[in-house]
Amino acid sequence: MEKTYDPHAIEQRWYSFWEEKGFFSPGSNGEPYCIMIPPPNVTGSLHMGHAFQDTIMDTLIRFHRMKGDKTLWQAGSDHAGIATQMVVERQLAAEGKSRHDLGRDAFIERVWEWKNQSGNTITRQLRRMGSSLDWSRERFTMDQGLSSAVREVFVQLYREDLIYRGQRLVNWDPVLHTAVSDLEVLSAEEKGHLWHMRYPLTNGSGHLIVATTRPETMLGDTAVAVHPDDERYQKLIGKTVQLPLSGRQIPIITDHYVDPEFGTGCVKITPAHDFNDYAVGKRHGLEMINIFTIDAKINENGPECYQGLDRFEARKRILSDLEANGLLEKTEDHALMIPRGDRSGAIIEPFLTDQWFVKTAPLAEPAIKAVEEGRIRFVPENWGKTYFEWMRNIEDWCISRQIWWGHRIPAWYDEDGNIYVGHDEEEARKYYNLLPDHGLTQDTDVLDTWFSSALWPFSTLGWPNQTEALRTFYPTSVLVTGFDIIFFWVARMIMMGIKFMGDVPFREVYIHGLVRDAEGQKMSKSKGNILDPIDLIDGISLDELLEKRTSGLMQPQMAIRIDKSTRKHFPDGIDSYGTDALRFTFASLASTGRDVRFDLGRIEGYRNFCNKLWNAARFVLMNTEHHDCGLEGGKVSYSLADRWIQSRLQTVGQSMIDSINAYRLDLAAQQIYEFLWNEYCDWYLEFAKINLQQADEASVRGTRKTLVQVLENVLRLLHPLMPFITEEIWQRIAPLAGMEGKTIVVEPYPVPNHEMVDADSIAEVEWIMAVILGLRRIRGEMNISPGKSVPLLLENASPLDRERLERNNETLRKLGRIESLQLLDSGDQAPDSAIALVDQMKILIPMSGLIDKEAELKRIAKETEKLKKALPRIERKLNNPGFLAKAPHQVVEKEKARLRQLQVALENLEQQSRQIKTI
User: Fold this and answer.
1) What is the pLDDT of residues 79-89, one digit of tens each?
2) Looking at beta carbons, which pairs linking 912-918 to residues 24 or more positions away fall under 8 Å?
3) pTM recorded for the entire structure
4) Domain 583-757 classified CATH 1.10.730.10?
5) 763-851: which CATH architecture?
6) What DSSP line would sit under 490-504, residue for residue?
């Protein structure tokens, strides 16, 4: 093995080997275990959320593969309708063309060309993460098979009256000219205004005052609403007001939607341009007046003087006209949530338009029942409440989009507007008995991307054909996903799975948290705090990082602040950590349901863990390769330390299995880390160094056998979390432990043997460790060099302590660097000594001649003074109400922790000073 661990020398080599040899395909035996990857956008690249999620999934998949389950991790990507179309449209714009110049068919062909040449960046990056997906079964939501499934579902739902075409209010992107889902709308607080307008009563007796943040929408008002119990307006209910600037009269109605405490208690109702107003309009049978064109200009329903104006230009003109007519009461500054399209950045407009919808209520009922009855379990369970809340208030689902890239809606119209739905035009004609000369034109809309994604758990397995894969792997085992798409994806998969497969699509839903930065902030391009997983694996220079973070900003003015922050946090850029350290970091943070804070200190610590494992393996190989490791029939004798580490291995192995089964990867990571670093490396290898010097060949053989067998087991326990380094080392260690497999990937996960747990050995080694740690603590407190041999006195030793001392005398002397060891009897007087306790037994190190008393007291006094100077600064900060109110919570907590550390350090120094003065 190389002297130092270099992840780049091994990672891609091993991944290619695994993929080429087909180790990621399901085996022929075992219980089915299947995870469907949430299909990433074909336009996407790997971000921290993906990397975190994929680490969780790959850990589960590798664990179950090693357990002998027939394991499938289904690979694939999403066609990402709007996102992909925009990428190709931008390319065309650079050539001075639009999609309309090409025409629909040529444009779709161009998108496929882009997909085949430049798409799937993310699938290459998933390989870098070590994700053991079955690439031989990779699917794409526009594949022929999946497209067939989409058409089949659409046709069935339509013919069962569960899909209809109707006019409803939708989120409309006036730049992309399409409806968009709620998930594609990003709302953020922006500064705006609240305009108070006068609506004159028709009878001339006065006016009502209404307030709005969108005065241009008044052109579509069809009522003014007040609360039915509001005494102020009782006499006006049923009367009318004159709608300013339009000449229309609109009624004054009552509705419980109105908050009488807000403003004047009067609300303008614009049913065609506000979701709440739409509901009010439906309840009262109000006219729905759409005042916008598809690009948000005033249409023919507005007064002639405003027609053709952009909505914001119309706003200025309307406000000016209101003021000129004495109808603008006042204007206030007002912060409001502005909805913008996540792709175009355009302000989204609620827009009344003809769209295709799924009737969701009949589909939601069995989906709710499936979770209520426990056929699907949410982890953590509290997400079930969120699911129920959404599902019990579900509205019909708008599934049509006015773009070209996607699954074209399988519906045709004749010249009279009649609708004919079929798998294709030929089947539609046959189903509706149409004559060959009956002219038909296909709907130009495509389906919402979430429609095809909702079929993912069964369409990828071959449905509507009844394939072997479908019979084997449906329902799948667990879905791993973020909370933000429980409604958009999870709920819809459950509805579609039950409807078309007669069973739930998965047994469990594991909801993970968001990956945030070290300060707990959400990662975003505008904040300039995004970390790229590939940069953490490969490293990146400061200049490259600055370029990456400051280019292509929606708000270029943020570049200076982002540059400054990046230089502060990453003065030397980002170091290369390798995939295993990154994966282990994610696993260590994967506490169920909680958001995670990612900081470089942690990944650096886990790179050190990789180095620790590498160095331990080198030590083991140097002492076992070309030696008898107990596999050749010779007598084997196990030392106390051998029995102890084997015992601990069984316990840790069981804890790992329990933790992974409970989705507590954080606990699994912690358990194997502590065992490997603290017990195997820091203690057992030190014991082994002593045992390997023994003259007894059987005992040496036993230690060699234990060294390799425990390490080999540790590698298999650790493999699901850190696949690359474990494979590299396992290939060298496995033959020494009597293993003959081709790869660790398909080796069995260690099964604990509880009969090997030796409680006496554990207790005795813990006693040895307590004595050594007591010695080390005294050395540290008294500033005694670790290399200096010291005399040791033991006082108040029990009969059991004496037996253990006799059995382990040599080990204690060597590990503790003890020059002499004396047991004190009850009447013996101990000299002035530093003391540590092991239960009732006292460990004493006589101080005479070991330390320079005066020099040590001076050192402690100097250190104490330094701490006492630092203490008031922190106390002042924490007593400052301004700091406590303005500083981020994590900064305040950091200062509190620092204060506690200083206080403890001061107490320790004062105790040491008192102890030395007694000598």
Assistant:
1) 988 889 988 99
2) 912/781, 912/782, 912/860, 913/857, 913/860, 913/861, 913/864, 915/781, 915/834, 916/782, 916/847, 916/851, 916/853, 916/856, 916/857, 916/860, 917/857, 918/832
3) 0.86
4) yes
5) 2-Layer Sandwich (3.30)
6) IIHHHHHHHHHHSS-
